[in-house]
Design brief:
The structure is a homodimer.
Chain A (H helix, E strand, L loop, with lengths): L8 E2 L5 E2 L8 E2 L2 H16 L3 H4 L5 H12 L7 E4 L2 H15 L5 E5 L4 H14 L4 E5 L4 H4 L4 E7 L11 H10 L3 E5 L11 H4 L3 E4 L13 E5 L43 H10 L8 H22 L4 E2 L11 E5 L3 H10 L2 E2 L1 E3 L3 E5 L7 H16 L6 H5 L5
Parallel strand pairs in A: 2-13, 5-6, 5-7, 7-8, 8-9
Antiparallel strand pairs in A: 1-3, 4-10, 9-10, 11-12, 12-15, 14-15
Helix pairs in contact in A: 1-9, 3-9, 4-5, 10-12
Protein name (chains A, B): Kynureninase
Organism (chains A, B): Yoonia sediminilitoris
Catalytic activity (chains A, B): L-kynurenine + H2O = anthranilate + L-alanine + H(+); 3-hydroxy-L-kynurenine + H2O = 3-hydroxyanthranilate + L-alanine + H(+)
């Protein structure tokens, strides 16, 4: 299929949206699907909707659709909660698998929330557990037989640097450690093959490249041979073997179902389920090839036009996710000026201008235009307007 | 104000909905609010919506509105996740406050997920921690100086039996224990005064009597004097003091904000926020008074018409939540037959027929009609149709 498919999205006229890596745009059909979930399903079926509308099964049904995009076999992915919660679940289950080891190993390119959740878990467990954080390049060498769990995000949220999933998973297994991959910046952006990688756990979110909407549910993958073995630390009733038996004690459900916790967010799930239809008309292989080409073009255009910016993403597309980042000391106000001109990227402290490229709705002409506008802002110091310095930094 | 206010809800014609204690019906205005969140906010603002549409502040803003309904001061309630996750957060924080004590005390009238979450937490902590579960009537006597945390649901999900929040909280404090209340069947159903109760933590859901929709976010309350002191075990980035500084280590946010974890479910939050407008036109005092009267009437009607059913809810309205439950060995198929006739209650294993009364949209005529239909089903053994026996039990 030829990309882009701008016709599949509702994006405001004139906007060049280079922030699908933070929040994907609204796919067509989602508004109608959510309206149906509210009016016909909730309004019309009320409590019966748990069966008649398939709400109860949705986390597994949608999980399979996400799983299909990341090389997971059917029945190995389930949706729910937020990515931070899913990280906690994977880490807790991983630690329980290696009771004689005390170290969670991660890197300083990981998304901070993953490190925070590890801190919280370690604090609960006490007894000498600790989090060891090294440079991304030093991970492989740091895996030794003290390490219970290696937890990494495949694609660095700031730089776009991409880990070698298979190689690091092999190294982890070689030292007897459990491997947890965070696919926040991978799912929907590039080809992931969890089955080939052979990691024990993977987690991710769906509001970025999977376009599930603000606050879309997260997912967790458990390797099929472990799904009936792992111990859920967040032992919620919908992960129970028989939730509606209302037993007094917890018995984990069959397979991946045990990683469910509480009542699923039905309206968010409806949005996500519809958004995933985008993947019926394209392949991850095509998206990835187009993404590398767009990122290469943006690097070339920006380096030619804006010499003040320093590339901090890998130059080699194979070592990069679907984003390009530049360091620039005036990056914050420059990004605000760019946003005001309709080119939406984002800023990550301390000095990173970050641009995501989603070939579903971005093409080469958009890339050249974005670089041209950026050049104009820099050449004319348009970012120097105080309005851009004082704007909130929440995005 | 005169109740009911059926005009505030979209309920299918002819349905008598006695299951607002499981999933509240669709309030008018919610469909439009959700559509606005999808189309104008997500579609139109994309990533900018986190600021421009107030998404980032929503958990605290909506939390204050819920807090107002349960006697919590501004800034002491925040929304997010599911009730099971909020239970975990409260328990973990409570245990951390009493490091020399090892017991979580609860009762067998608690919702099972609360007990399961306690089991999971205890398993993580190891070191002699344990969950002690007693009969509801035995709780007060079981509170001794081994108890770190007393965790109870105010209103029993099966029987509607209501604990005395103030008395039990005082007993807990008298023994040096921390008190956690689950308000799942209280918030929106009856008057709760958390400030007067003086408990350390409270949690609850919003898809029952607060009509937030299927999968609506949960809430957690932390007593104001503790909000800057408690230790978040689920240390997610949105509970960090400066989430967008992307520090490598966790520093809890100010006050109740530290109980946030991951990205909030913006679409669900929009539905809930609109649903809460119902409370602008009524008071919890009026709702409670009407609810007790409706429940009394239903008990009288059913006991007169259906002698095969045994009341298992307290007969005294002051000791009961907003529901009435009867034990009946054929309760499951009888409830299915009732649902087929348009009277929606639900069934809870092993033999409980459960009816919730929400005076916002239920009146005395509905109560009498529901009892009349129930009588017809029992008198004519309509529940004996095999279709009712084989139907799924998920509701």
């Amino acid at each position: 299929m030829t990309l882009p498919r701008k016709d599949l999205f509702d994006i405001p006229e004139g906007m060049i949206y280079l922030d699908g890596n933070s929040l994907g745009p609204l796919p067509k059909g989602v508004a109608a699907a959510v309206q149906d979930a509210v009016v016909a399903q909730w309004g019309g079926q009320l409590i019966k909707g748990w069966n008649s509308c398939g709400w109860m099964a949705q986390p597994a049904v949608v999980g399979d659709r996400v799983g299909h995009l990341i090389g997971a076999s059917a029945g190995s992915v389930v949706m729910g909660d937020t990515l931070s919660i899913k990280v906690f679940q994977a880490l807790a289950a991983g630690l329980a698998m290696r009771p004689d080891r005390k170290v969670i190993l991660s890197d300083n390119g990981n998304f901070p929330s993953d490190l925070y959740m590890a801190e919280g878990l370690i604090d609960l467990k006490g007894q000498g557990y600790r989090l060891k954080v090294v440079d991304p390049e030093a991970v492989a060498d740091a895996i030794d037989d003290s390490v219970a769990v290696v937890m990494l995000t495949e694609v660095d949220y700031r730089t776009g640097r991409k880990h070698d999933m298979q190689a690091i998973t092999q190294a982890a297994h070689g030292a007897g450690a459990v491997m947890v991959w965070d696919l926040a910046h991978s799912a929907g952006a590039l080809e992931v093959d969890l089955t080939a990688a052979n990691c024990e756990f993977a987690v991710g979110c769906t509001y970025k490249y999977l376009n599930g909407g603000p606050g879309a549910p997260a997912f967790i993958y458990v390797r099929p041979d472990l799904a009936d073995v792992v111990k859920p630390a967040l032992a919620g009733w919908l992960g129970h073997a028989a939730p509606f038996a209302f037993d007094q004690t917890y018995t984990p459900g069959a397979g991946i179902e045990r990683m469910r916790v509480g009542t699923p967010p039905v309206l968010q799930m409806a949005a996500l389920e519809q958004a995933l239809n985008v993947w019926d008309v394209t392949t991850m292989r095509d998206v990835r090839a187009a993404s590398v080409a767009l990122c290469d073009l943006f690097i070339q255009e920006v380096e030619t036009r804006c010499p003040a910016l320093t590339l901090i993403s890998p130059r080699n597309g194979a070592q990069r996710g679907s984003q390009v980042s530049f360091a620039y000391d005036n990056g914050y106000p420059a990004m605000q000026a760019l946003i005001a001109r309709g080119v939406i990227g984002d800023f990550r402290a301390l000095n990173v201008m970050r641009f995501g490229f989603t070939p579903l709705f971005i093409d080469a002409a958009d890339v050249v235009q974005a670089a041209t506008i950026l050049q104009d802002i820099l050449d004319n110091r348009l970012w120097d307007d105080p309005v851009y310095l004082t704007r909130s930094r929440v995005t």
